[in-house]
Amino acid sequence: MELKKIDAQEFATLPNFDVEYKDSAYAGEMSEKAYNVLANACDDAQSGYFEEMLQDLYLDQALLAREMDAKGAFACIVKRLYEHGVASGDAGCCCNLANLYHNTSGRGSAEDYTHAVELYELGSDRGDTQSMINLGYIYYYGRGCERDYTRAYECYARAALTDTNPEACWKLGDLYASGKGVRKSDRIAWQLYSKAYELAGKSPLAARAAHHMADYLMCGIDGVMGPDPERALGLYVQAEVGYYHLIDAGLTYYQRQLDQSIEGQRLAREALQERHLDICAGGNRPPYRVSLVLPTLAEALLTKVACYLLSCLGCASLCGRGGIGRRARFRFWWDSREGSSPFARTNRTNFVTKGYRHPTFAEQVL
Question: What whole-number distance in Å separates Cα of residue 158 and Cα of residue 163?
């Protein structure tokens, strides 16, 4: 892919501060604000300050996304500036130009994906970590090629080792969480998501790491941590706010994750409410206690049978007290004594009714 630099004669035709917006050839083709953004970018590009040029363009990401989607004069000039940067040896411009060919919906042409891969590889060789990550996306999703999780892992790992990029860490976490291209490990995935969250800081990109961490906190990880819906709720809220910023900046593909983070908040609140009601209903109960809502006499009688079966299976051999009926209208309790036979324990079973509402017919009978 051969690209040419912009010469002085071509720069003179691009937006610049020597010509005011109203007197320029671009009046009406773009807004005055967009014209001024390009004038700054062109000035930096002509001076060889490509990092500053990219900062100029991304200063207002919403404007950039809107003008690029319009595919008008603004988009043509931005693409030409990227080409100038690539031809001049800049790494960041390789990634930005490749992004124009990389259709994330998967509907791009084979030729466009070929150009994207070529530019990402060039940017990677020049040390741009985002090029490495985006090349990983190409292989991860199989855009313009077969899915290759091993090569995706190599791209993400290279980016993670090259720079402190949070996106590289959470994408590695995705691979370990799903077991794609690597041996599945929730522990390693959690560590990578936590590292990504730490690296992202207050950036909206922290949303992705926060979202993944919250998902794990809802269920816990064996040998690592138990469920923590309270912390999960806070991370889901942070993820939601971050996704809003990312979507406003033009990254509309985060809409699905936004919806998931909002649903996650609902589930976390339900878990917190359940914990609260659990405490109000009697605090921390032993893990061998069986929960069952019993609104009718027939179900209550069946529960006595269930207690007998549990005793025979050895569940009642545990010392202490057990019960059935979590936040139910009543609860059955039984006492057990260590060392006694299941038959003896069954005969000593002491059913005690504990009501939480007005006594039902089943409560009165029992």
Answer: 9
